[in-house]
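Researcher: Here's a chain I'd like modeled. Treat it as a single chain, no partners, no ligands.
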Amino acid sequence: MISNDQITAQLPYCLTGTDFPELGEKYEGKVRDTYKKDGKITLITTDKLSAFDKHICLLPFKGQVLNGLTKFWFKKTKDIYPNYITSYPDPNIIVGDDCKPLMVEMIVRGYITGSAWRAYESGIRDFCGNKLPEGLQKDQKFNEPILTPTTKAEYGEHDESITPQEIVEKGLLTQEQWDHMAEASLKIFKLGQEITTRQGVILVDTKYEFGINPAGQIVLIDEVHTPDSSRFWDKDKKSINKEYVREWLMGKGFSGDGEVPEIPQDVKMETARRYIEAYELITGEEFKPVSGDQLSRIKLNLNLQ
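Model: Modeled as a single isolated chain. Structure tokens:
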């Protein structure tokens, strides 16, 4: 585990964003800058932290952690489901096929927590088409993982929960596409849980995104099993991801509406530490950061000098 001094020293070098017109048309997402050109997509993961669909703050090495975990998981899952990746030219970068995104986010939940628990606690028993029984307790494990899909919102907007029936009725997916993605999501989640269990980590829930590649095939896109797209607990059900920041924000009365409270440095440092801890706990490997000026390094690795 790297030291707090190393994390603090990287603060001035947090990657806030990029501007590389040579890479093609740019789209700025919650945490990634995406460039499209000649059938390829280049995703540069910044150090921005997003929660409640809002930009919260910058965290040292967060982009490298997310990219490293995505690389780890795409390599682990590629034998059971195809993805869009073609190369990893930099610790913050993925290059892949330019796919047409399917506008539904596939949320898989192994436990009732987070927004699912808040809905349940408010009296909702039909959650995204899942009939939930009475008597569930917070953080209780489901007998089998459930799917609770959402619409894929534009940046700054909120994702909306939706049922599989509504997805098909609204024309977001065909029934065949839904069935295919549902089966794939549960399969990938099962593998994720098997791997994390061996590491003493609980994969609580996650989101998957899918797209259609140039060959017309549905493939896994975006990221897989990162602390941004997933919730992880240790064996004592202690959060090891950005839920720490979510809980801090909710303690300040913020849950997505209004102005984001200023995040103290100690909260940033602890959150960064937890991201790095998550990487090491999930992969079983030491996180080896590349410190210093990230923009210069990225330009060099992409031959943009």
